[in-house]
Automatic annotation (TrEMBL):
<dbReference type="GO" id="GO:0006310">
    <property type="term" value="P:DNA recombination"/>
</dbReference>
<keyword id="KW-0233">DNA recombination</keyword>
<dbReference type="InterPro" id="IPR050090">
    <property type="entry name" value="Tyrosine_recombinase_XerCD"/>
</dbReference>
<dbReference type="InterPro" id="IPR044068">
    <property type="entry name" value="CB"/>
</dbReference>
<feature type="domain" description="Tyr recombinase">
    <location>
        <begin position="178"/>
        <end position="386"/>
    </location>
</feature>
<dbReference type="Pfam" id="PF00589">
    <property type="entry name" value="Phage_integrase"/>
</dbReference>
<dbReference type="InterPro" id="IPR010998">
    <property type="entry name" value="Integrase_recombinase_N"/>
</dbReference>
<dbReference type="InterPro" id="IPR004107">
    <property type="entry name" value="Integrase_SAM-like_N"/>
</dbReference>
<comment type="similarity">
    <text>Belongs to the 'phage' integrase family.</text>
</comment>
<keyword id="KW-0238">DNA-binding</keyword>
<dbReference type="Pfam" id="PF14659">
    <property type="entry name" value="Phage_int_SAM_3"/>
</dbReference>
<keyword id="KW-0229">DNA integration</keyword>
<dbReference type="InterPro" id="IPR002104">
    <property type="entry name" value="Integrase_catalytic"/>
</dbReference>
<dbReference type="GO" id="GO:0015074">
    <property type="term" value="P:DNA integration"/>
</dbReference>
<feature type="domain" description="Core-binding (CB)">
    <location>
        <begin position="75"/>
        <end position="157"/>
    </location>
</feature>
<dbReference type="InterPro" id="IPR011010">
    <property type="entry name" value="DNA_brk_join_enz"/>
</dbReference>
<dbReference type="GO" id="GO:0003677">
    <property type="term" value="F:DNA binding"/>
</dbReference>
Length: 394
């Protein structure tokens, strides 16, 4: 009679034989994931030890189902990184900016710590220690490193090279206390005055300012848009003739290494694409700027270089920093205007409207990163206490 066929990933009866050297060899038939049945052996000094060693060997063998990839649990981590980057390109779901960011973070933050390890050597304890050590230096870098490490190892799990993803079991990273930095109305007006003085030529050496910086700031204050989104605004995105003037946020400016700066036809996220009603001060600034835009095309950018090319976000940041430094103002970044808008809207109308204006998918992001907490408790408490606890006869 023929032996009954084993199910894939299972083994038959274990037999133990004594070798001429006095040791013991345990053997069993194992049906591999390719459907072929093979004899698997393990040798030890005692029969029981040989049987136990064979069972461990069979259990380990059952964890890994071969796939089309050439990777194995004994492959170096660097080979997984290359395979992961190829897979990202094959899926083609990420924006160019995000794809380059993932590769940079993997190569600069993660690979130096894991490049000499095989995949089976990367366990929970090692990943946990690595991320905690990085978090001591920078929470942000630790978070970015965890993301790309988890994504790469998740690919190894999906392609059945590893049985589980060790990053899924590491300790949670704890964000250090942080209060979003927003500007007060007094500070906003001081910035406006500094830019106006510079654009009037009273603190300038070199080419005369073209007046764009002040308008850029007014648009950021009136829309809450990111600096790249503001620089990507076109004629077709602007409506200043309706009863409610508005600007559509529908793209962003990107600058890839070795390539010319260009307009990307979508903002950071899907929800970031939105139409924003603008306040009077923004509408007035945009009207004045449109007079200076010589290109009549609807696709003409509102803000450009003297040659008509898109402005880079870095050049605007540098210019803002330089202008404010001349006025003795430091520490202001374009993103602070976005936080300022979020804080104002939250205080006047609540966090839901603030999140909607910023294009956030939920209010948690708005609260954590954009709204400066108001330390002033509602003054109604004083009236309530006076009413109940006032001194008699007073």
């Amino acid at each position: 009679m023929s032996r009954p066929r084993l199910a894939i990933g299972t083994f038959g009866d274990i037999g133990v034989v004594r070798t001429p050297g006095g040791r013991h060899t345990a053997r069993a038939r194992y049906r591999d994931w390719d459907g072929k049945t093979r004899l698997v052996e393990a040798t030890a000094d005692a029969s029981k030890a040989a049987t136990q060693a064979l069972k461990q060997k069979l259990t380990s063998r059952a964890l890994f189902q071969p796939s089309s990839t050439a990777l194995s649990p004994d492959s170096p981590f660097g080979e997984l990184v290359a395979y992961w980057l190829e897979d990202l390109d094959l899926e083609d779901r990420l924006s160019r900016t995000t794809r380059l960011l993932y590769e940079r973070n993997m190569r600069t933050l993660v690979l130096p710590a894991f490049e000499n390890l095989t995949l089976r050597e990367i366990g929970v304890a090692r990943c946990d220690h690595f991320l905690k050590q990085m978090a001591k230096k920078s929470y942000s870098r630790a978070r970015q490193a965890r993301l790309v490490l988890r994504l790469a190892l998740a690919l190894a799990v999906r392609h059945e090279v590893l049985p589980r993803n060790p990053v899924d079991s590491v300790s949670r990273l704890h964000r250090p206390p942080h209060t979003p930095d927003a500007l007060t109305p007094v500070e906003v007006n001081a910035i406006r005055l500094a830019i106006a003085a510079w654009e009037a030529g009273r603190a300038v050496s070199g080419p005369k300012p073209d007046g764009q910086l002040g308008v850029i700031v007014e648009v950021m204050l009136g829309t809450s848009a990111r600096i790249g989104e503001v620089l990507a605004i076109r004629r077709r995105d602007i409506d200043i003739t309706s009863a409610t003037p508005s600007i559509r946020i529908a793209g962003t400016i990107v600058s890839h290494k070795g390539e010319a700066t260009s307009r990307q036809d979508h903002p950071k996220t899907a929800k970031s694409r939105r139409t924003v009603a603008i306040p009077t001060f923004t509408a007035e600034a945009v009207r004045k700027r449109l007079v200076c835009v010589n290109n009549p095309s609807l696709d003409a950018l509102l803000f450009t270089t003297r040659e008509g090319n898109p402005l880079t976000t870095n050049s605007v940041r540098r210019q803002l920093r330089h202008v404010l430094k001349l006025a003795g103002i430091t520490g202001v970044t374009p993103h602070m205007f976005r936080r300022t808008v979020a804080t104002v809207i939250n205080e006047q109308a609540g966090v839901d409207l603030a999140a909607e204006l910023l294009g956030h998918t939920n209010t948690k992001i708005t609260i954590q990163h954009y709204i400066r907490r108001n330390e002033m408790v509602n003054p109604a408490t004083a009236e309530l206490l006076d009413r109940v606890l006032a001194k008699e006869g007073s």
